[in-house]
Every structure is written in structure tokens, then in C-alpha cells.
Amino acid sequence: MSKSSNTVWHQATITRSNREQLNRHGSAILWFTGLSGSGKSTLAHAVEDELYRRGCRTTVLDGDNVRHGLCGDLGFSEIDRTENIRRIGQVATLFVDAGVIVLTAFISPFRIDRERVRMMVERAEDFIEIFCDCPLEVCEQRDVKGLYQRARKGEIADFTGISSPYEQPEKPDLVIDTGHQELSACVSEVISYLQQRKLIPAL
Prior knowledge:
By secondary structure, the protein is of the alpha/beta class. The chain has helices spanning 16-23, 40-53, 63-66, 78-97, 111-120, 136-141, 147-152, 183-196; strands at residues 28-33, 58-62, 101-105, 127-132, 174-176. Helix 2 (40-53) packs across helix 8 (183-196) and helix 4 runs parallel beside helix 5 (111-120).
């Protein structure tokens, strides 16, 4: 990974551990991955709602929102998708260092890109890969933007699941059946996992 020249990393006097103690919970990246329409953003925001209710410091990095600014110069070629995820990974690790639980909702179709983000964090367990398991046909039924239909007509190039591959996680930390389960049940699964990992206290 390239670095800017003539720079030195400045070590903060307030550490991640200090911030986690202040927040009374751990920090981590909850990386929601899955096809377009699989429920990543919906689930990430619903989990954040529950974490906020419990007094946790959180933020959501959403795919569409990030492409309005930080990654607004990128397209959807394989190279641009990789750079998109690299940038998000770098931003997410800054939030983790700040003691925040950061929830990301990106298709992130390539395994190697997700693994690169895992390698960015201080500890591998700081990266929690959550696969939103939803059949393609269900994703297409939910497609309010009509993107799948346009992709099948050849109007959108490099569309994941149609003209570009999605590489399903081989060993995700969590698999959530977003295709069939109610949203509340999906949220409960994520919250239970965070409690088991002792990232957040039990109520």
C-alpha cells in the first residue's frame, strides 16, 4: 500500500483504550456485505438505532452516501471498487481508534478487498464481517431503483450479481438471513453477538 512521502505518524496522547473507557464499550468495524437490495443499509441503521438507545458511540458509513463525497471521483470498475473499499477501510479504522463502533454498508464484492480492510485494523477481531444472506431473486423484488432491471437490459455495466461477480464470504463472523427474517430478529442477532464478544454490555 502506497504512502505519502516525508510524513511521520503522530502518536496521540489519548489512546483508543482511553476513549473506550470513557464510552463504556469497545470499538470495532461491523462490515455488512451482500448484494444490492440484501438489506445491508437497513440493517446497519437499525443496529445503530439500538446501539444509540443503549448509549453507544456509533456512526454508519453507507455506500451511496460515501460516493457523494469521499469517493465521488470513482466509478464501478474493478479498480475503482477496490479503491472505494480501501478508502472506506482507512476511514473506518480512524473511527475505531476514536473508540467508535463504525457500521459500514457496502456491497464490497471481492474477498481480497474485505481482507485488506481486516489487515488494516489493529487486531483482526476488530473487523466483524457480517454477510447479509439474501437470494438474488429477493434482492431484485426489493429493487425500488430499478437497477437490476436496467442491468439485465445492459444499461448498467459491471453490476454486481448480474454482469459482475459477488464473492460470498467464506468464513464470515456472522451470517444474517436478511432474505427471510424480520428486521427485528436480524438486529437481535447482531446485538447478541456484540454482547458475546463483550464489545457492549448486556442490559
